[in-house]
Amino acid sequence: MVMEWPKEVAKVTMGNLPDCEIDRGSCSKRMGDKTVVLDVSPKPVRAMEELALEITILSVQPPRHNDGQEEFGWLTLDLVMPGMFMGRNRVILRKTSEGRYIGRGVIPRCPSGKSLWKITVNVPNLGSIDFFFDVSH
Amino acid sequence: MSATDSLYVMMFVSGFLGGFGHCLGMCGPIVAMYSLHLREGVSAPRNLKPKGVLNWMPHLLYNLGRVTTYSIIGGIMGVTGSFAVVVRPTESIRNLILGGVGMLMIVMGLAAGGWLPYLKRPGGANRFTERVAGIVRFISGIKAVGAYFPMGLVLGFLPCGLLYTAFIAAAGVGAETGSRPEAFLRGMSVLFVFGLGTSLALFTLGQFVSMNAEWLRNKLYRGAAVLMIIVGVIFLYRSVR
User: Would B227 be classed as within a structural domain?
Assistant: First the structure.
């Protein structure tokens, strides 16, 4: 289990808007020469339910031998509510096939009624990338 | 330091930071409400004679009650290894407690502000108002130190997002553990250290309010009463939403 304190957890981010309609399908973002695809199921994505979290990392360039893509067998996600300290909620995703990582997690319900959440995908050797989306209560 | 040890440290830090940044907003008004009454006189066993002990004992017992509830639920999370299985069925109970606390805060706020004049005369306006008056007099009249432990036990069920994240961690630790007793103990320990972290903030607030209760009552009583009513309405709204 990875135990370092995620940099993004304690960071207060105000005024963010969803950039991912997770209920309609997967979302993707560019990260260097890779594309990171996030999917969460079941849909609609609800708080307080066990969720299957899936990340797929696609190479924009055709993969070369020894390009470092095989160096990690897992990656992590941090589930963060922007503007509200909700503690550390880190999920480890295990590699199931080339570039595909799967794990399970729960998004807690905030009694404040806020529904905007952020998933920070931490990819070893590459860095991290954020996805903002709304969850149903 | 093992992964589990560092998880405990992280949970304590999470509780500590969340206590000042998160819990003070949710539980702070409740702590302030009961602390304002403490200076009026707390009865305690004679062996607890020194005034200093009487000052902090209610806060200690309230937080101990809260942490006990957290720890037991954490243990259950550990055994089941699932957050959703335990929390979802109990959500209606949590909302009921939130609504009850909200209503109580509204009535106490109205009473504290002097906006329920029938509370001051025996008999009341009718049977309903007399019942409300009786409840308010009972709550305001709690002076026994021991009452603060069960109060903490009940209020430990209040719904809280930060607490849910700690429960998720306890369920995760339990799912990785082989035997059920060990899973219970680990889940319980995770919530115990988390609860200790949150207690520092609430204990400090409670001590501050009860030490300055007289000044606060004289200067801010109407303002505090209005604030109490507003928080009560918010709690009530969240419980039925």
Answer: no
